[in-house]
Amino acid sequence: MDTTNAHPAGAVVVGIDGSDHSERAVDWAAVQAHQEGRPLVLAHGTGTLGRGPTAGTAYLLEADPHAGRVLHELSVAGHELVEQAAARVTERFPELSVHSVVRTAHPRQVLLELSRDAALLVVGSRGHGPLRSVLLGSVSVGLAREASCPVVVIRPHNQGLVRQGVLVGVDGTADSTPVLEFAYRYASTHDLPLTVLYSVWDLIATTGDSLGDEGTDPGVDDARIRLAESVSGFGERYPDVHVRQTVTRGLPTAALTTAAERMDLVVVGRHHRSGLGNVLLGSVAANVVEHASCVVAVVPVETVFARTNGSAVG
């Protein structure tokens, strides 16, 4: 393992904090790096003993003579965590190129910096709840909103369920192209079926009961056309992927989280929207990250044409 704190571009980066959740993230990231032939970077931020993600250490060291020793101990503990994770990974994948990064900084800051030249960022999740949200500072949601590369959040799930492959939410615009690309590639690499979901925006209708077709409603018919246009061409590039296209009516978050209950992975897009756009679209990606019962991938996209009447990507 490379312990120089240097890291290669195009790697799969995974955050480590010693929890069971981060161990699951490491295992998932190692499999993905192996499948894609990419290096793996194990990253740990020790924290700064300050009050926020950007707090520095210089003032703290001047104010508290014992702070230096505490920071050193945190660094030593961080290196031990990373070394243990690396040993587990290399035992399973001896040929995998593994690198470590341990920095005296807030974990969120470390991971955001590494995301700038990473292919993928993977983080664990302790689940949704008031106490957990306070303790974590919504780190996984914050990373999903701000990272420069796709972010995978390893959500808690029921391991006893038989799962049905990959689910991807689309909005019928060109914005969905990178989201579909990620989903198709993952389904192909892991030999999984793919469900492509378009949710017609409707504040009154409910979507939690079924993913079936919604009759002959003109809005749904238009959505089916947009959905077919969105996936056009992907079948030729990924002929091995079995694809199911489905349209539903209601709130995109409800449609995606309901369908995700039996999926291996759900893929959503993250748009750079205005404040008003986020209010109208309900921050779909953030809500899926918080509530889905399977692994979630959030893919950043450049907004080509924003819509508010039909979207499963937020």
From TrEMBL:
Q: Which residues form the UspA domain?
A: 12-155, 166-300
Task: Supply the Pfam families for this chain.
Answer: Usp
Coiled coil (UniProt feature): none
Q: Family per UniProt?
A: Belongs to the universal stress protein A family.
The protein's name is Nucleotide-binding universal stress protein, UspA family
According to the entry, what is the taxonomic lineage of the organism?
A: Bacteria, Bacillati, Actinomycetota, Actinomycetes, Propionibacteriales
